[in-house]
Amino acid sequence: MDINDRDISLIIREDPRALLKLYRQVVPELKRFFLLKVADENDREELVQDTILSIVDSLPQFKRQSQFSTWCLSIAKHELVDYYRRKKIKAILFSRLPFLQEIVDKALGPQLALEEKEAKGKIFKTLHNLTEGYSEILRLRYIEGLSVSAIAKELNLTYKAAESKLSRARLAFQAEFVCQSTALPTPG
Which residues contact 73 (CB under 8 A, 6 or more apart)? Predict the structure, then answer.
């Protein structure tokens, strides 16, 4: 896993191809890193995404004083420490003061609903920005819940072709989603 100065510059400028290249290089390493350190698969996936965003945010500070992979894994370690710190604080707090869990749930209810609405909006915007073929195959799989076999039949593809197209569509979705996450809000 390495990156050149040109790619860094393109990523900082939010070039989708450069972001996708970074994503493809970094994600497998991050997944391996978190695999034995975090039991819950959803937590691992969230840590991978948080780490990717932290890497992209911190990229302007990368000074080549270490290997790029070492630098990325140090960011992953910080994310992991934060994850366990939050988990420990929550466990201690709610075990000693269980009534707080209900208060927090009620207090965060509207906030969580707002975050869910924003996330859904971002997901649909990302789907809209993809090519029709990628958008359609992701819709069939994740919104309509079709199996890869059913998608292959629906799109008149072989199983392998449907599986391959779904894989490429996921990568395109992830790259577009990362682009949206790192994009600065437009004024107005």
Answer: 29, 33
